[in-house]
Amino acid sequence: MTSYDAVLFDNDGILVEPPPVDTQTEATRTAFGEVGVDEPDPEHVAAVVDGVPVDRLNEICAAYDLERERFWAAREYYDEQSQLTEFRDGTRRSYSDTGVVDDLEVPCGVVSNNHHSTLEFVLEYFDLEESFDTYYGREKTIESLELKKPNTHYLERALTDLEVDSALYVGDSESDVVAAQRAGLESVFVRRSHCQDVDLEVTPTYEVEDLHGVKRLVQG
Questions:
Q1: Edge-to-edge strand list for the sheet holding 108-115
Q2: What whole-number distance in Å separates Cα of residue 159 and Cα of residue 110?
Q3: pLDDT in tens, 171-206
Q4: Which of 36, 37, 155, 200 is surrounded by the most beta carbons within 10 Å?
Q5: What would the pLDDT profile of 27-62 be if each residue is shown by its tens digit?
Q6: Which neighbouring-strand residues pair with 186?
Q7: Beta strands 168-171 and 134-138, pairing class
Q8: d(CA 74, CA 101)
Q9: Which residues contact 29 (CB under 8 A, 6 or more apart)?
């Protein structure tokens, strides 16, 4: 019998394969070109791909005298389009164990740092809509960068939607574990192939190899 009121899942790297760095890099370079910067500094491109904080984004835009809202709108557009293309052409797929979610006898949700609209597409495209009671990605705004995990903002919104006091958060990154800790939740780090050798500086409550391991934890 489960000891959790709900289970929350990350999306990229948990439900679907994570976006390739090369794809994100090319999308970011295209965004720079859209606003007139044909040869951006590779360090600036990498910073944007890695999840740029607002202060660093301001510095990057100032270096090219860019209007940051215009650049960020281009970046979000091309980043999302590159993801949708790879889902549609089969470059990125859902994991074969996502059906486990339907076996859990508690409410489930998704909390992702990806765009909310991209997450919405993923759930519909891979027929996962009925598996989850709520889901949150971030808005395509500069302000949303401050609300990404390890900020607990979207986790707390999901918990409020589900009207639960305790939940398990399932992720594949250090920021997922930190966000769970800050929200007072237990965490599961899933060591899929892309994060098999990651050294965490924080300790998750549990580590498993796949979502079948999550099912065993939840169902006791």
A1: 134-138, 108-115, 7-9, 168-171, 186-190, 206-208
A2: 10
A3: 999 999 999 999 999 999 999 999 999 999 999 999
A4: 155
A5: 999 999 999 999 999 999 999 999 999 999 999 999
A6: 168
A7: unpaired
A8: 35
A9: 40, 45
